[in-house]
Amino acid sequence: MANGKLTVWEKTKAAVKWVDSTVNSRPRLVNLEVTKKCNARCGFCPYWMTKTETVIDDYAPIIQRFRPMVVTISGGEPTLRKDLVDIVRGIKQAQSFVYVAMVTNGSLMTRELAEQLFEAGLSQLNFSVDFPDQRHDEGRGLPGNIEKIKEMCRDFQDIGFDRISFNTFIMKDNLDDVVNIAKLAWDLGVSVSYSTYSVLKTDKDEYMIGPEDVPHVAKVINQLIEMKHSHGHIRNSDYYLSRIPEYFAKGALGGCEAGKKWIHVNPEGMVQPCSELEPIAHYSSYTEKDLEKADICDKCWFACRGESSAPIDMGRVSELGVQPDFGSGKAA
Predict the structure, then answer these.
(1) Lowest mean pLDDT among 78-82, 109-113, 261-265
(2) What is the DSSP letter of 293?
(3) How far apart are CA 303 and CA 103, in angstroms?
(4) CA 197, CA 208: separation in Å to the nearest integer?
(5) Beta strand 270-272 with 281-282: parallel, antiparallel or unpaired?
(6) What is the torsional sign of CA 105, 108, 112, 118?
(7) pTM of the predicted model, to two decimals?
(8) Which of 101, 179, 224, 295 is the most exposed, fewest CB within 10 Å of its CB?
(9) How far apart are CA 15 and CA 179, in angstroms?
(10) Where is average pLDDT lowest: 17-26, 114-123, 177-186, 323-332?
(11) Which of 329, 303, 162, 318 is CA-nearest to residue 240?
(12) How confident is the model at residue 250 (pLDDT cuts 50, 70, 90)?
């Protein structure tokens, strides 16, 4: 497969690579942040304030260095990179198997660009969705964005992507719409992956779900798990979803393995154990000893963390089909 849906043989290679990364303690996932610039104005993310930055042109050596199973391209807004198609092609050609996904707000996406990304090797296209209606546009400062995303979900399915998906953060202000977002995804014939908001990026408590709302969270999560089992389009593991109420009750969950099971690489090639921790080394000189510099915390339950930690048995491998929806731990 050069792009699109995986063959049975490639799914087998993916499963073998998953086991290999576990046995050899290599990151299964690389979150590849190709820009911090963004054309949205989200209150829960400060990246749109970025005016200048240094970026690298070729991210393929990063993939060759870490040999991950999955690469998630994120930003900022990755479609601001004019060389995005070349970036995807270089990643895909960097090793014999790597599953490439991208998270985008969709505002700059066109069918032509989607087709080019598919031909370059992008298998999964994730659209960030906060609300199922115009509140999404208002929160992001992108008029017409949610309707455009709906249109693209319908229009892009014949391109051949392995998966088109929503990427949704569970926050205080959209808790009542989390299930409605799953229903919208089902109606559009796409999947949905959830992650949880954390104050790590902005220190803004107004988006954080507090302990007082945990009973409500538990009901919502139970609905998601039921819908996942009946519809099959919610890509999170039961393990990840079931621990969300506990996270919001405690505000933290122990045992973070950032830098071990997943890593984050910023636009200039600096390695971070996760998207919210400080850079510890350039990818070209990085060794596992550099992890000793990191101050690993337990303050998030992002999907990149939770899904990387989810126990893997044959049921989960079968459920994944191709690859786990790690998400990026951030919304484009």
Answers:
(1) 261-265
(2) G
(3) 13
(4) 6
(5) antiparallel
(6) negative
(7) 0.90
(8) 295
(9) 30
(10) 323-332
(11) 303
(12) very high
Helix (H) or strand (E) holding 151: helix 145-155
Could you tell me the two tokens for 276?
């919210």
Nearest to 136 by CA among 173, 163, 190: 173
Choose among 161, 61, 65, 156: nearest CA to 120: 161
Q: Are 131 and 174 in contact (CB under 8 A)?
A: yes
The token pair that represents 317 in the structure block: 């491998």
State the residue for tokens 């693209």: 152
The amino acid at residue 146 is I
pLDDT bin (cut points 50, 70, 90) of residue 215 is: very high
Residue 4 has pLDDT above 70, yes or no: no
Residue showing tokens 């995005």: 84
Distance CA 201, CA 209 (A): 15
